Amino acid sequence: VTRTKRYKNIFLIGFMGAGKSSVGKKLAKRLQMEFCDLDEAIEKGLGVTISEIFSRQGEDLFRDTESGMLRSLAQKSGQVIATGGGVVLREDNWEAMRKEGITIYLRAPVEVLWSRIKEDTSRPLLQVEDPLKGARELLSKRISLYEKADLIVDTENVSPEDVAEEIIKKLATFHPLGCRGKKEEHRF
Ligand code: S3P
To answer: What's the predicted TM-score (pTM) here?
Structure first.
């Protein structure tokens, strides 16, 4: 018998390279929930890549699209949702995530995140002259936002499978009542 509570949705948050998608897939399988990737849903829904949205419309309009898609995905229950690294920037997004599930921050030092993303050119915010410096600055601005998550899990030197296991263990002892007083909303 597992003591793991069944949450309406699980939102994985964290910087680019945190492992939100790879951990999310493992976690969804283990909990027999559906997996859903916010960036992928945006790209499929609009038929364009995230990079194209950034270059054609700019970051603000991307954020609007991201918020809209987050709200719409969150209506359904039983999903592990891998968000984009910037989802924490808007208070609206927090409202949606808190109402529709639990938030989990996948944490890693910037060097580790960087080693996971440096070969990948699909992230518009890192297409700058000194991307490591850019990542450092962006992360330092966002750390306090990521830390607003209900749970924090360290991912340095941990495989996606083991991060998923760690999340399941933490979920088993997490009491949303003590945290936000909305216990029922976290159940299916
Ligand atoms: C972004 C992260 C990306 C993507 C977009 C913006 C960010 O998602 O949403 O490039 O602001 O950190 P990943 O975290 O999945 O790379």
So the answer is: 0.91
